Amino acid sequence: MNADAGVLDLGEFEFECGESIPRLDVAYEAYGEFDGENAVLVCHALTGSAHVAHRRLDDEPADAQPTGGQAHAWWSDIVGPGKAIDTKEYYVVCVNIPGSCYGTTGPASENPETGEAYGAEFPPVTVADWTRVQRRALDALGVGRLHAVVGGSVGGMNVLDWAKRYPDDVRRLAPIATAGRLDPQSLALDAIARRAIRADPNWNGGYYYGEDQEPPSEGLALARQIGHVMYLSKASMSQKFGRRAAGRDAGGEQFPADAAAAFFPYRDVESYLDYQAEKFVDRFDANSYLYLTRAMDNYDLASGYESDADALAAFTGEALVMSFTGDWHFTTEQAESLADGFRDADVEIAHHVIESDHGHDAFLVEPDNVGPPLADFLSAGVEGKAVTDTDEDPREDSDFAPVHTSLFSD
Ligand SMILES: CC(=O)SCCNC(=O)CCNC(=O)[C@H](O)C(C)(C)COP(=O)(O)OP(=O)(O)OC[C@H]1O[C@@H](n2cnc3c(N)ncnc32)[C@H](O)[C@@H]1OP(=O)(O)O
Ligand SMILES: N[C@@H](CCO)C(=O)O
């Protein structure tokens, strides 16, 4: 597969908040051949990177590490040759967002004016900043109008922001496992996660990058564990762990044990979350977690407009909203409300609901369910063969009534 990866110097950048940094570096990866019409931008989720698909650069040794340090390509079951976003057909670009820590400038990056890491001096970022940076990065790569913008979770909010900010620049939108805004329960959990980071004495107001300093790993671990529970579902947790004990030697040594711990089991579910947290603190920056969750919490599609429909009104392309029944972070009901916003704006739209127990991360781990509707939407729009819509009237085709129609019918 033809692939390209690098860091673009976008020069001085003014954020939506009005603050500027003298130089914004943006890490990107691109796969496939650009023919002028076939560019697909993939927007990554909260802790993702530009490394969306497996790739080997022509001049790269076989054991080379990907840009930005995230070891696994996070959507390699969906993006690649012959996959749903087929890199033999599309020129796929993924850009690491500002505020993150995978090659694009963020709080852990060096401020050229001081020679120190930005830390808490990094400006607050918004989803709008991500979209504006992606536009500039695409300009630098020579890409004008996009065939599609696709993304899941907060990456789906980023997709929606494209419709609002650059409605003429994109033909098809696929916001997946997302919503026009977070609900208060998710806002609450994100706030607790941020507090966990700030409560870690090593956080030190955001200045912990010195050689003689330790990062706030315990706070970040807790924050991720809270987040990770949001990405699972009751059913997936029952299936994966039940109430099983993991055994005394299964880890769990990051935190001091409480007095009664020796009497009670250390459970599989605790062991899993401890393991995931440990992996996470090795790969992510605590300040980035604070900045990016703030951006996600703040996002409101209707902001500056009368309604979601009003915000989407200038977009004349087609949209595929995809949601998962087991996702309580971004529910199918929220997705249906988003779909209604598109419908009210007279956008051609389908809301494809996937029956799933996987919870929010279903969009990452169910390529067999996500791939076909996404592939067909990219090639044929909402009329694509595998695309279903909650608004279809089952009486129109009594042999093949859409499975999910009843979920949202009046
Ligand atoms: C753009 C982006 O979205 S960011 C990149 C994606 N990463 C994330 O989304 C982070 C949050 N989600 C995850 O980490 C998930 O693990 C996913 C979505 C990446 C993959 O999900 P799944 O394939 O269902 O894997 P699962 O969640 O079961 O995790 C498997 C790991 O947990 C370990 N594990 C499973 N059960 C236990 C347990 N009881 N105790 C300890 N470890 C356990 C496995 O050994 C495995 O380890 P490995 O990753 O080192 O191989
Ligand atoms: N689990 C994914 C999706 C979160 O929204 C991530 O960590 O980025």
Which features does this protein show?
alpha/beta; Rossmann fold; globular; Rna Polymerase Sigma Factor, Chain: A; two-stranded antiparallel ribbon; binds L-homoserine; about 35% helix; binds acetyl coenzyme *A; EC 2.3.1.31; 12 helices; about 400 residues
Question: Could you give a quick summary of the protein structure above?
Answer:
By secondary structure, the chain is an alpha/beta fold. The protein has helices at residues 127-141, 154-165, 184-199, 217-231, 234-240, 268-283, 286-298, 308-312, 332-344, 362-365, 367-380, 405-408, and strands at 3-9, 13-14, 20-21, 25-31, 39-43, 79-80, 85-86, 91-95, 146-152, 170-176, 318-324, 348-354.
Distance between the termini: 48 Å
List the helices and strands in order. EEEEEEEEHEHEHHHHHHEHEHHH
Strand content: 5-15%
The strand count comes to 12
Put simply, the count of helices is 12
- CATH architectural category of the largest domain: 3-Layer(aba) Sandwich
Major sheet characteristics: 8 strands, mixed
Number of domains: 2
The percent of residues in helical segments reads 25-40%
Uncertain stretches: 400-406
